Every structure is written in C-alpha cells, then in structure tokens.
Amino acid sequence: MQHNPDASNELFGDLSHILFTREQIADRVARLGRQISEDYAGQQLVLINILKGGIVFLADLMRSITIPHSFDVIGASSYRGGTSTTGKVIITKDVELDLRGRNILLVEDILDTGHTLSVVCELLKIQEPASFEICCLLNKKRPRNFKTPIKYVGFDIPDEFVVGYGLDYRERYRNIGCVGVLKPEVYQ
Ligand code: IMP
Ligand code: MG
C-alpha cells in the first residue's frame, strides 16, 4: 500500500473515507492554475479569497498561476459550529484593495447552499470590477437557489460533510492534507 502522509495526523481516524488525496488535489489545482493563467493573460487579475476555509486552496492555487496577480481576503461566516448552515451570512472582514476596473476571481473552498457566495458576490460587485468570476474547489451536488455560473470547479462531490485541505468542523481538521468525509458519529 502507498504511504499516506495524512495517516499520522491525530484526527485522521475521524474520517470515514478519503474523497481526494493530496496528489489528486495537487494535480487538479495545478491544472486550474494553468487554465486561469491562460484565460487571464495580459489582464489585471485579483484573487479574492473567502476566509477561513479557502486559504489552503488559495495558497496552492496562486503558486500555480504563472501570470502576475494580486490577492485579497474577505471574511464571511455562515456556519455557527455545526455541519449545516444557519442561512445567515455575517461579513467579518471586508476587502482592502480597490477592485474597480479589475478582473476579480473569487476563490472559495466549497459551494454548499450558496448563501455565502451570494452575499459575497453582491458585496464585491458594488465595487464595479471589469469582470467577476468564481473558482470553487468543491461543488456539492445538491439543489440550490444560487444560480450564478461557477467558471472553475475543482471537483463535484456528494452532499456530505467533508473536512481537510482548509475545511473544518468546529475549527479542527483544516490541517489534514486530503479531503475526506467526516464520520457522522463525530458530530452527532
Ligand atoms: P454555503 O453558504 O452553504 O454555500 O456554505 C459555504 C461555506 O460553508 C463554505 O465556505 C464552508 O466554509 C462551509 N461548508 C459548507 N459545506 C461544508 C463541508 O462539507 N465541510 C466544511 N465546511 C463546509
Ligand atoms: Mg468557507
């Protein structure tokens, strides 16, 4: 069996199974970076990341983008410690860069109900960017009201609660390098 570097993480045993290994994620992120570099060649690109779950994805994605770009972060929270959304999104930190006339690519870890993205999209579009697109690492296959097309999707996943690669359950599991499904008994 291949050595799994995440197996030594103290919380690894809380996963019921792995959805994507470090290698699979690295490969997908590299391909996303190449595509984004081609699509935005010669343009002023600004990546906007939604805290906190998206920072691991951002850190890898920006290093696989080969064109000059800047980034900023926006704080948004809809989960109040559980595994399902409250539907209420709180902006905890606004962006600092001037986004007017720039090409914004919103970088998000996971699209679930879409509540977070719809609030953040509204807020950013007020700044009148030249273009606005979304890049999401994980897209949960579930019905939702959020209809804005996602230009770049890493992986489609089943409607299950996942952790790792920046994603948390009660602020833990972010430092697991793979993405896996959390055992239901951990949160039940
Ligand atoms: P939405 O507003 O329902 O689309 O949820 C978006 C936010 O909820 C994401 O940015 C995550 O921070 C969090 N979230 C949604 N699904 C999961 C999950 O399966 N695991 C961990 N966090 C999640
Ligand atoms: Mg998040």
Output the structural class: alpha/beta
Q: Gap between N and C termini, in Å?
A: 32 Å
Annotated CATH architecture: 3-Layer(aba) Sandwich
Average residue pLDDT = 93
CATH class: Alpha Beta
List cofactors, ions and other ligands: inosinic acid, magnesium ion
Order of helices and strands: EHEHEEEHEEEEH
Describe the structure.
This protein is α/β, with parallel strands linked by helices and 188 residues long. The chain has a single domain, classed as Rossmann fold, CATH 3.40.50. Helices cover 23% and strands 30% of the residues. It is built from 4 helices and 9 strands; from the N terminus they run βαβαβββαββββα. The strands form 2 sheets. A 6-stranded mixed sheet has the order 4-3-2-5-6-7, with helices on both faces. The protein has a 3-stranded antiparallel sheet with strand order 1-9-8. Helix 1 (22-39) packs across helix 2. The longest helix has 18 residues, at 22-39. It is globular. The two termini are 32 Å apart. The site of inosinic acid has 19 residues, from strand 5, helix 3 and strand 8.
What's a quick, concise take on this entry?
The protein is α/β, with parallel strands linked by helices and 188 residues long. It has helices at residues 22-39, 55-64, 115-125, 184-187; strands spanning 15-20, 45-51, 69-77, 90-93, 103-111, 131-140, 152-157, 162-163, 179-182. It binds inosinic acid (IMP) and magnesium ion (MG).
